[in-house]
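Section handout 9: paired folding examples.
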Amino acid sequence: MSTSETSPPGADPSSSSGPQSSAKNSSSEQNGGGFLHNLSALLRPLAIERFRIIDLADAEQTIVGIKKDIEFRGFNLWILVFSIIICSIGLNVNSAAVVIGAMLISPLMGPIMGIGLGLGTNDASTFKNALGNLTIAVGISILTSALYFFTSPLDEASSELLSRTQPTLLDVVVALFGGLAGILAGSRKEKSNVIPGVAIATALMPPLCTAGYGLANGEWNFLLGGFYLFLINTALIALSTWVVVRYLRFPLLHYVEPAVERRYKRLSALLFLALLGPSVYIFVGIVVESHQDADLRDFVATNIKTVTGASVTENIDRTLSPPQLQVVITGVPISEAQKTEWTNKLAATHPGVELAVFSNDVDKADIEDLQRQVELMLSSYSDLSAKDKELAHLRAQIAIVEGEFRKLQDERLPAGIGQEVLATYPDAVSVRWGRVDGRDRDAGEPAASFARLQVTWRQAIAAEEAAMLEATLTTWLKARLETNAAVQVDLISPQPIP
């Protein structure tokens, strides 16, 4: 009797039998799993070796170093005062470089890390000592800063001050990771240069100086905002220290009563959450406002900037209640109906935000025409100014020429003098005239010129008669020249009669 095997409906006749197929699948799974297992076994030691920090920590020296920096006495206290003054000056004059320099020398990290160390090791004595010294340091810092801002002639709030009045979740994140970097650097057997960078990143000094500014000027938002930002940074640095201390397995102190220990830890957690909660709320509000501002700019781009020929500038003023979207339009006139339409659209899409449209209602063509007229006027004015300068130069030249001409006229004697003398005096043989220039030895300067008349006589005449004749000719020559200046008349004749 023969037997035959039949396949179930829908089965592949070419497929392998059950036991053989299962063996193959199992082998394949083992091979794949083995590869992943081998890869994981290979990479795990490398990752552990690369990121391991426990074996490089020096718990004993770290605890000693943190406890040493907790106390604020003498040197540390004066360094704190000096750094506060430097930071206040930097905030006052809006100099980020000066603020950074102040943070580099700030000694505030010591007691804050001491608080985290006390929490992480259950050391209540260290915790209380660090908290007390931190309180003293904060009080001295705020009073020092307030004294500076009270005496400073610059009382306007700079952007550096304004940026420290509203803590956000970003400040929390920076303080958290800055604190982690600080405690890790401090726990190494071989110390690094990370601490100065941590002091800058955590930004402990500027918030305290901002609080001092608020105290000096009665600006309570500055006082509360700055102080709250400092508390957040302090809490996160202390938390970071606690985390690292517990991870590195620093030796723990235990309370005699476990209930007291639990209560101690519970109060610490509640304090941290109380400090962190408002920051989260503020950060969420800022994110919401940022998204709303982006939507408002999209509204302006979609509805208002589409006006042909218009130049549009928008601004969102959140100091007003409710917030106001301010739009300035130039180039084309905007009707009241158009403004109403935009207002209704904004109210439908962004309730709680007002629209303020400012338009000069002047056509762009009118503006261009006005610009051309102004340019033409300026060009004409420039041409007139150049012509005025040229005319003034010509007038000066004319004045010089006229002066020279008058001088030549004054120096030149009339041509008819000789004929007049010869006609008046028959015994006169010849006449010579002109102006005579001279120089005085004692004066060292040219002497004044004078008119000279020389008359040659035909025959000898007596001395008295010659003198009378010279006097007469002198009087006549002055009258002829219409001058009162000195003139000289010389009478030349043969040997005078004795």
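Moving on to protein 2 of 2.
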Amino acid sequence: MRGEARKHSPASPLCHTDTTTSKDTMHTLSFTGERQLRYPAPDVARGAMLALIALANVPFWLAYFPETPQAGHAALEAMNGADQWWYLARTVLVDRRAYPLFSILFGFGMAIMASRAMERERRAAEDTFSAEEVAGWHPVQRQIVEENIERHVRRVAARLIRRRGLWMLVFGGVHALIFSGDIIGTYGLVAVFFAEVVVMKRTWPRVLVGSLVAALSLLGLWGAGFSMGGTPMVLEYHGPVALTMFYPLTSLGNWLGATIGTVLMSLVVPCVMIGVGLARWGVLQDPRGHGLVLACVAVGGLGVGVLGGLPFALMQLTWAFAGSAAWSYLLFHASGVLGACGWLALFALVGGGPREKLGSVCVFLSAIGRRSMTAYLSQTVLFILIFVMLGVAGVRSLGVAVSGLIALVVWALIGIGCVIAEALGSSRGPAEWALRWLVAKSARRRPLPAFLPVLAGQSGAPAEAAATSSDAVAAAAAPCAESETPARGSVSEGE
């Protein structure tokens, strides 16, 4: 291959474009167990997150029992003491805390995916030049080539993120036929719209985008709380919901509106940008040396999350009047971001730093985390099976405390399945495999651009090598990024 001699020369001006590149490269070491040294914290966080997602989603299914009460006072009267106490705990620890955690981890995964894509595309571009060619360049030419390569690799990474986001929208749409609360489509939409922002070298565009969307979301949430009047009194989903032959279409329609609304009126986008920043910091990949910071964030974040959700929860239960619904509802949502950061810091501490062997808890959680999309979709399937069986058995309604226990059982069963799959040698779930395959197959082959222009008055400038590249590294997990097999004859786009 041309450039083989240059590739092994540490003095090559194209080995590392800048310090940011080398830092990002360090952060892309495998944390999925494909090497002897394992970086478990990200996968442990995803695995534990799925338990919170199950607890947050299970109330959706209670609405399909025929004697489920309407929301408000009817729902409150149907709760026993255990239900009320569980509702209080879920409100301050899980509700509006799970999806920000999901969003942060999704942003983290996109950043890792982009870093890996850029590093491989950068090496491919550099390998089109030999050491002799590089030695004969004018200093201005070197600078131009480095800048052109950097722009190229970021475009490549952005195309990958956008293409993956489009396929996530497809996955979410199919899932929405039975579960209108699907969140995969929301993250797919974020990936499509903000791909360029994710791959930008500078931090301020992500801060600006996150701040603007956060301001818009918080303003909308305050308005929603204000419209509730003196007390929200929502408690649970409205019920009972009648199942008709048009349910899939109705569910899909509700999902379409909710997906767009969630991007604009929730804190998903700001949390995604936080996740991108965490990936560049490297604290989640390797928590060593950050124990004190993580412990403070865990305690402080969870504490603020509890205190921020408490006024809204007490008003819901009519245990206390804590002021207007507008500010309590706003505080409930805003504090959820800090609560999510607290959960993430705690899970990072549990995962720990890189090591050869993991403890049983980390093995269990990381097995789920490596198959997070499959686990998320499996929750819907198991919820349907369990609640259908309960309905056939004559159950007419179900308390929120019992449903919480069912959610934990569902998560545990999925975890056992993931551990078994891990023991059998499977590195990913069927949903992850399908997404990677579709992303890889839909990639367009594009010629490498001309990185080296001919300067005025200079002749004999080296010609650009004829090389082709896929338009992305076809490597991404849900919500995190892992390896993908590159297409034959293309520049290596896989991990």
